[in-house]
Amino acid sequence: MTQTPTRPGATRRSTPNATRRVPDAVNAPAPATPATPDAPSRLPLFVLLAGVFLNVLDFFIVNVALPSIERDLHATATALEWVVAGYGLTYGAMLLAATRVGDRWGRRRMYAAGTALFVLTSAACGLAPTMDVLVAARFAQGVAAAMLTPMVLALIGDVYTGAAYRRALAAYSTAMGLAAVSGQLIGGLLIQLDLFGLGWRSIFLVNVPVGVIALALVRRALPDVRPNRTARLDVLELALATTVLVAVLLPLMEGQSHGWPLWTWLSLAAGVVLTVPLVARARTLHRLGADPLLRIALDASPALRHGLARQFLLFLGMASYFMVLALYLQADRGLGALASGALFGLVALPYLAGTSKAATLVGRWGRRVGPASALVFLLGHVLTWVGVADTGAHGSVLWLAPGLVVSGFGMGVCLTAQIGAVMSQARPEDAAMVSGTMSTVQQLGNCIGVALVGLVYFAATTPGAGAAFQHSLVYLASVMALLAVASALPRRRAAAVPE
């Protein structure tokens, strides 16, 4: 039978319905002729990217609906905060644990279970009769997102190889960015259309048909990958890891809106303190031959650690950029959610171009693309700063166009190149754990970045939102400068997984 060509050092890919174990089961014959890397099926990518898009979209789209939710369900300010923070909190806190369960239970099965739960919880959010039900459903929706997200990059590596793999990574970056950039536009459009009189409920219910279609195609499209490792969960390590993540994420999400009360600082301090026994427990398990949740961090090559650090820096300036841009457009320029969302298209279209060109640029220029794209993103912030200064409070917002376009392109290339750099260091059997670790780092970067830019923005609002936005752009440009420097640093040579 014809076998799928493989990358050196990687396990062979099976066809979608074949069950395999890595690496021992590779001696079993493949049941059917798979698609070649030069002409792979697009169906697996559609199924996987549907989950990624819905996950990221739900993180951003809900902000547009908060005023409508407040009126309809008579919500308090605290309840509205939990609609946003509850999703992000359970998503970030459960990523590592969900990744481990997926490695043990099977990646396809875990992705399907996460998608099914996401559909159910989206329906529960859309049909919620009270705020208590909505908040509980958002917590559960975050768990579902944590179940499916780390499996995506791992399954992409199980389906695609070579140039097709690099194109799939670019498509993954495109889906993430488009969901983030278009969240406000899609949310505003759905609420304004008021389809079937659903109002804000449509932003959750729209997930249901997309998720159902993806779920129906999972078994046909995706391989059943079960790494050959008895990846057991240590209850103590899991409890410590979850506690540390909650202790860090919760104050970062809630601190700004509450004025950073004492409990936020105590929680952050507890997170730092509890990291010590968490690392000690992971080292003990590692020494005993077990497989701790932090194994990737303990065993990571210098190149992988460097890649994760760059992911952290990049995401310090991602969600925070979208947040302050939306605040400026609505608070200073008086644009509604739909109009400001449409202006985000000036970021989205060049972002698409950047993600589509990233693989070609990396193939031609190699690791120089990392620092160069970060500098392009930085240049976009500088041009936006100039545009804000020139337009004032009453000039045309189109003065912002050059900066938004350049930022979008730089962001697209940078995100795709950085994700590829991290995943190129992952052994096939570790792909899910590396993906889960990277997603956790990204979530921490987003939360810390939003907290930091919030301090900058709200401390500078006295002269007006325009000045606050300019101060925030200085912060964002500084982060991109750090990323450019980190990406340009010479690295010790490390064994990468060839593409």
What do you see in this structure?
The chain is an all-alpha fold. The protein folds into 2 domains: 14-21 and 41-222, Up-down Bundle (Growth Hormone, Chain: A), CATH 1.20.1250; 294-488, Up-down Bundle (Growth Hormone, Chain: A). It is 74% helix and 2% strand. It contains 18 helices and 2 strands. It has helices at 43-73, 77-105, 107-126, 131-159, 162-193, 202-205, 207-221, 235-258, 262-287, 295-299, 302-316, 319-332, 337-343, 345-365, 369-391, 401-423, 431-459, 465-488; strands at 19-22, 224-227. Mean pLDDT is 80; it is low at 1-39 and 493-499.
Q: What overall form do the CA principal axes indicate? A: globular
CATH architecture of the largest domain: Up-down Bundle
- The third-level CATH topology of the largest domain is Growth Hormone, Chain: A
Which regions are unreliable across 5 or more consecutive residues at pLDDT < 50?
1-39, 493-499
Number of strands: 2
Question: Going by CATH, what is the homologous superfamily of the largest domain?
Answer: MFS general substrate transporter like domains
Strand content is under 5%
Structural class: mainly alpha
Radius of gyration based on Cα positions: 22 Å
Q: CATH first level of the largest domain: which class?
A: Mainly Alpha
The overall number of domains is 2
On the 0 to 100 scale, the average pLDDT is 80
DSSP helix fraction: over 70%
C-alpha termini separation: 24 Å
Instruction: Please tally the helical runs, counting DSSP H or I stretches of 4 or more residues.
Output: 18
In short:
The protein is mainly α and 499 residues long.
